[in-house]
Design brief:
Number of strands: 13
Helix content: 25-40%
Shape: globular
Largest sheet: 7 strands, parallel
Radius of gyration: 20 Å
Order of helices and strands: EEEHHHHEEHEHEHEHEHEHEHEE
Length: 368
């Protein structure tokens, strides 16, 4: 089947500055890829994160590389998966666009429809959905964590209260930005009111702790007082032996996140997990190999008894929808593990889609 692919570079703007370990984001650059076959359209999102993604190239170079892969798909009708392993955000966008196109072509409602170019019509049409899942049919929501971004003590305390009022039963705090004792105090304040069966607590250190002077293990011991579900990436990525030691000795479960970036070969994935032996891995398709790469990570981890969950990486609603559909498919019906899928509401100029958060779950509305 002959495909035509167009690329649109777009700049999204945050409603509020988003604080991360790599600085504060006020805007977000993405690339939308639209695949058409003359009668239907599919859309996907390529969203590399500066200073983090292994394919975070300067905008002009990124666009040229993406164009080259789009040309291959146009000529062959297939995604060159092996060639795209080093470019996970591009792979994710192309996977989503082609699956979106396939869904529209297979749908009787859209099979003979004219080419859709208006953005609102595209957003409300049959974007990538797996109709076999309860989530896609609007019958089940996906549980998500309430994410508390880095900020001052007072800002983070206020955000925690807001998440609790909204009904979140899993709160995730990004730590490492303020005094560690103050961060412990935030956790203590939650635990004084809610036990671990009432509110699950996760923290993400983004590599903020030091290993060499015992800093990391000491801080993990202090954190363990608050019955945490897990901590993500306590030390910087690339220290496999040190991370393995922490996973062995730490009094709370450790999840890998940044550690997985750039590990694209299946044998490398097995080697990393076999050496470090984490309790969990946290998967972001834009960072960790697209949909195919995440499925690969999950399969290898399951064989080793390692758990996993998925998280969005500041994508628009296009990417968020695709990750949610993937979650519903990979983890099956009645998902109980909270996923990190709430970031689609961060932008003032997001792409409208029938996604909404009700309580502590992400839902897709089939009536939008």
């Amino acid at each position: 089947m002959k495909h035509t692919i167009n690329i649109e570079e777009r700049l999204l703007h945050f409603k509020q500055p988003a604080g991360t370990s790599r600085g504060v984001y006020t805007e977000r650059r993405i690339w939308l890829v639209r695949v058409t076959d003359g009668s239907a359209v599919g859309i996907g999102e390529c969203a590399p994160l500066p200073d983090l993604s292994c394919d975070a190239l300067p905008a002009r170079i990124y666009n040229n590389v993406l164009r080259r892969f789009c040309d291959v798909v146009e000529q062959t009708g297939a995604i060159p998966y092996d060639d795209l392993r080093p470019y996970p955000s591009m792979l994710f966008g192309l996977e989503t666009a082609l699956l979106s196109l396939e869904c529209r072509v297979k749908s009787d409602e859209f099979a003979s429809a004219p080419l859709v170019t208006d953005e609102t019509a595209v957003a409300n049409s049959k974007l990538y959905t797996l109709n076999s899942t309860l989530f896609a049919r609007g019958e089940e929501g996906i549980p998500i964590n309430g994410l508390v971004w880095m900020g001052t003590y007072d800002e983070m305390a206020a955000r925690i209260e807001e998440k609790l009022r909204q009904g979140f039963r899993c709160i995730k705090l990004k730590i490492g930005a303020i005094d560690f004792d103050r961060e412990l105090d935030l956790l203590r304040r939650i635990r004084e009111r809610f036990g671990p069966r009432e509110v699950e607590l996760r923290v993400d250190a983004n590599g903020a702790f030091r290993f060499d002077d015992g800093d990391a293990l000491y801080k993990l011991e202090l954190l363990s007082q608050y019955a945490l579900h897990s901590i993500e990436q306590p030390i910087k990525a690339g220290q496999w032996a040190n991370m393995a030691e922490l996973c062995r000795d730490a009094p709370l479960p450790i999840a890998l996140d940044e550690e997985l970036i750039g590990i694209n070969n299946p044998e490398q994935k097995r080697q990393l997990l076999n050496i470090i032996k984490p309790a969990y891995i946290v998967l972001k398709p834009s960072l960790h190999g697209g949909m195919a790469g995440c499925r690969e990570w999950i399969s290898i981890a399951r064989d080793m008894g390692i758990g996993s969950w998925m998280t969005s990486a500041l994508e628009s609603n296009i990417g968020l929808n695709a990750i949610a559909q993937l979650c519903a498919d990979v983890y099956g019906p009645n998902i109980t593990m909270p996923q990190g899928l709430g970031t689609g509401l961060l932008f003032t100029d997001n792409i409208p889609m029938p996604l909404e958060i009700r309580g502590d779950k992400l839902w897709i509305s089939t009536h939008s």
